[in-house]
User: Fold this.
Amino acid sequence: MQALRSITLVRHGVTAAAAGICIGQLDTPLSASGRSAVIEAGKRWSSQLPKRLFCSDLQRARETAALLIGDKDIGLVEDSRLREIDLGAWQGRMWDDIHSNEPAQLARWGKDWLTYAPPGGETATQLVSRVADWYDELQQPAQRVPTFVVAHAGSLAALACHLHKRSAQHLFDYRFEHCAPLQLI
Assistant:
């Protein structure tokens, strides 16, 4: 089976979330500077955007995708499988608070993040599996067209691992700056 002709990965713009907060799947909007940066990127990439764009269903990715598209006739497909890693009960809390009140769980997650999840969250291995399921569904013949994906650092790294046939332990090999495209195929 052939792979997609090309896939470009874009991390959402900078969010309005407070510094030091555990975000995960917390549904945060873009900041004003994040919106401005996305609008400028959309102008630069205008001629490169394909006929469809996929994004996470979280607000920061949806907003980034919509701003990139602007008034162009581009299909936008939201999918929850492109969400950031689910950090469960830690989402919305300050990392300092988690460190102070749940040091054993945080330490265990830090040592075993591949198979240990925060309370109510998911493991890195589960993240890669979820994103791989999304990508594998795109491998149907009618789907093989150039594609942009707007999502999150974690889910994009998971997709890169899957595309390069690497395990979840390689997630941190991939770095995604806000609103900076990376073409993989």
